[in-house]
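Page 42, continued from yesterday. The earlier attempt failed because a stray header line got pasted into the input along with the sequence. Redoing it now with the clean sequence only.
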Amino acid sequence: MSSENNQNNSKVEVGFIWRITDDVLRDAFKKNEVGDVVLPFVVIRRLDCILEKVNDKVRNAYNKFYDKVAEEKLDPILRKSAGGLRFYNTSKHTLISLKDDPRNIEINFNNYLNGFNPEVRDILENFQFDKIIARLIKNKLLYEMIDAICKINLNLDQIDNHGMGYVFEEIIRISNEQSNETAGEHFTPRDVIALMNAIVFAPEKEELSQPGIIRTIYDPACGTGGMVNLGKKYVEDVLFANNTQKPVIRTYGQELNEQSFAIAKSEALITGEEANNIKHGNSFSEDHFVGKHFHYMMANPPYGVTWKKDLNFIKNEALNPAGRFYAGLPRTSDGQLLFLQHMLSKMEREGSRIGVVTNGSPLFTGDAGSGESEIRKWIIENDWLDCIVALPKDLFYNTGINTYIWFLTNKKQAHRKGKVQLINAAANIEKGTNGSKKVEHLFANPEKKSLGNKRNKIEDNYIQNITDIYTSFEEGDYCKIFDNEHFGYYQLTIEQPLKDDNGEKVTDKKGTPKPDSKKRDKENVPLNADIETHFANEVLPHVPEAWIDFDKTRIGYEINFTKYFYQYKGLDSSETIKGEIVNLEKDITQLLNQLLS
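This time it went through. C-alpha cells are written below.
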C-alpha cells in the first residue's frame, strides 16, 4: 500500500474508533478518559489481528512443551512457532471468540490477557489496563467494548505499521484536545521529523552502504517512538529504497509518560524491534543506557519544563568531571540543555550525528558565566555544533512559538570544521498592498485543516530545499556561516569612580579610586576583537573616567539568530497607510451595520 493510502486508511479507522467509543463509553467515561480506554484496546486488537494466522501453531507448541522445558527456554520456542514475531498468545481465546460466551466474558478475557508474553503484559500494565477493565465490568460494558473493537480490521494487509503510527498519534491528539493537555509532549509532527532525518542522514549514505553495517538510533524523550521508527524507515525506504542490501538499524528510546511508553513498546514489538530497547523512566535520574553510545540521536524534549524534582541528583552528577552535566546547569525552569548534554554524553567515539528540537531559549538565555552560556561554550569550543535550522512558525500541535533544530556531531566534514551553519527556514514575505497584506512562509504551506496550533506544514519540496542549503554549505539569503568564536564574547565589567558630595573621587588607602556600584555596567566584546581598542573607541568617549575590572571578566556564548538574519524594512508609504485606514473604516462600518441590523 502507498503511504497516501495508509494515511487515508488510518484516518478512516480513527474516525470509526471514535464513533464506537461515543456509542459505548459515553455515559460511563468522561471525554478526557476515552483515549485511556481506546489506546490499549487498539493495541490488543492490532496484536490479535496479526496473530490470527499463527495462533494454532503457538497453542500447539505451548501444549507440547510448557511442562517439559524451563520457562526461559519456552519463550524462544513460542516465538519461533509465531513465525518469528516477538509476541504471542497461548490462551485458547481470541477477541472474536470471546464474544461466543457472553456470560463468562470477564473470566475468559483475563485468561486471554494472561496468555500474552511478558512484554505485552508489561505494556498493558503501563496502560493501567486493570483499572480500565474494572470500570468496564462495573458498568457492564466489557462485552460491548470487545464487540465494538472487533469491528475494526487492523490486519497488516489493511494498514501497515506506518499507518498504524498515524492511528496512535491521532487518538492521542484527539484525546489530549478533549482533556486540554498538550499532544506535542507525546509526538512530533512527521514533517518536522522528515526534515530532521534528511539533514541528520545527508552525509551518511556512503558509510551506511558498507557491507554488514549495524547502526543505532536513540531518543531520550521518545514519546510514542515516532522519531526512532521514522529514522529507521527513512534509512531503509528512502536512502536505500532501491537496494536489496540495507544496513541494520536498531532503535532505542526512553520515555517518562507511561501511556506513551506503552505505545512505543507496542510499536517496537509489532515492527519486529527489540521491545526491551524501549525503557520507561526519567532519562536524567534513571538513565537506562548508562555506558551505552549511539550512532544517531534525535529528540524533541519538552520546552520550559522544570527539573526541580531531579535537582539533587543532577547537581551531584554535575560535580563529577566524567558526568553528563559537568559543563553547566541551566536554570531549573527549563531542562532542554540538560537533554542536549545527556545526548552528547552518548556519542560514539567513531562518530555520531544528533538532531534536537528546541525553542529559542537554549540559543541565548543566560548571561556570561551562567549555566546556559557555559553549556553553549562547551558545545561550540568542542566543535560539535554543526548547524541550526530556524523552523517556520505554527508547525507543532501544542505551540506556535519559534522553534529550532540543532544538529550536532563529533565527526564534522573537513570543510565544516571550526564553523557553524545557520539556516533561516522561518523566513517569510509580505504580499499585498493597501491594507490587504498577507504573510507567506517561504519554506512551508498552510495545512488544509488546522490541527491544534499546527497551521503549517513543511512539504517535501521544502524539505529538499532546506537540505540542499545545508549540503551546499554556501552563504545566501537564508544561510549564514560563522567561525565558532563568532558566538563568543568577553563580558567586561565597566567601573566608574565613586565621588563624595563635593564631586571628589573617593579612594582607598593606596589612593586607588573606589568604584561606584550604582554606575557599574557590563560591556560585551566579541572574542575576535581587541578589548583595549574596543574600550577606547566604544566606552571612553561616553564615560572618560571609566575603567575595566579585568578580574570580573567572563567569557559568554550566545546565538542571536534574529540579529544575523535581520533585514531592515522601510516605513510604508503614505498611500499604503491611507489604504489600510480606508479598509479599516470599511470593516468597522460593516461590523456596526451587522450589530444594528
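Notes: The chain has three domains: 3-177, 184-414, 487-562.
Reminder to self: strip header lines before submitting.
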